[in-house]
Amino acid sequence: MKKIKKILFLLLAITFIISITGCGNKHEKEKTLKLGFVPLKNNEKLVEDTEPIAKKLSEKLGRKVEIFTASSYIGVVEGLNSGSVDFAFIPPFSSLLATNKGTAKNILTAKGKTGVPGYKSVILAKKSSNINNIADLKGKTLGFVDESSTSGYIYPASMIKNKGIDLDKDVKVLFTGGHDKSVQLLELGDVDAIGTFEGVLDKYSKDFPNIKEDLKVIATSELIPGVTVTVSNSLDNEMQKKIKETLISMQDDKEIMDLFTKLFSITGFEEVNEQSYNNVIEVAKTMNVDLEKVK
């Protein structure tokens, strides 16, 4: 009798363990994936505009994908580090911050409109102003996007600093929170010049119909590595691989790639060249940015 009781107890224990494991796997499969984007524009509008991308990814990954965006670039980085964001499309400097702690990794680099995995930063001023080069910025008010924005701060500020202008003493700096906000403030005359990405005049021409007539480029940076697809290491390897393969396969989906191009100037994806990020690190050093201390 005792032997039968032992066998029954073992069978019940095994059944319980299997049921718990099964529930865990089911929960993992049903868990919503959070896809992060940095705040390129109004957060609500960005979520709305990227919904078709989330829907298509949901279909292909077999898991619901939900868009996440924060009020700052660091908010998305911290989400990747904590695991509350599963994967994200972020600029190269933000990707360095995310991967520096060993809690996230880069899986793909986006190609721009020219087919090259990179883009450039520009400094814009009004055509009607007397600002024609970086030297003319002394004593002016400058609009930058965010301290962790690659094209909206790190690169344009570095260009200005390299010309001998002290960002603390020679100019007034204003952080706008978004590339569209920077353009708006320049159009309104609240700032004298802004740092942003090349192609911004095309991207926001519908929102600001006169920007091509009103604004001019006074400086252009060297090539910056492309927007990076970064995944949180809290996501299992199988799903990381599936996200990578899915995005590569989506290059053949014209409707979705047209949307990627319209929203982010992304025309495709390729393997990450980690060496290309060395230059971003050097530019960050020029700005006295310590990757370990940025929060």
Secondary structure layout plus pairing:
Layout: H1 2-30, E1 33-37, H2 43-49, H3 51-61, E2 65-69, H4 73-82, E3 87-90, H5 92-100, E4 104-111, E5 118-119, E6 121-126, E7 141-144, H6 150-162, E8 172-175, H7 179-188, E9 193-197, H8 200-203, H9 211-214, E10 215-220, E11 224-225, E12 228-232, H10 237-249, H11 254-264, E13 268-270, H12 278-286
Parallel strand pairs: 1-2, 1-3, 7-8, 7-9
Antiparallel strand pairs: 3-12, 4-12, 4-13, 5-11, 6-9, 6-10
InterPro entries: PhnD, Solute-binding_3/MltF_N
Family: Belongs to the phosphate/phosphite/phosphonate binding protein family.
Keywords: Signal
Structure description:
- With 295 residues, this protein is α/β, with parallel strands linked by helices.
- It contains 12 helices and 13 strands.
- Strands 2-1-3-12-4-13 form a 6-stranded mixed β-sheet, with helices on both faces. Strands 8-7-9-6-10 form a 5-stranded mixed β-sheet. The chain has a two-stranded antiparallel sheet with strand order 5-11.
- Helix 4 runs parallel beside helix 5.
- About 5% of the residues have low confidence.
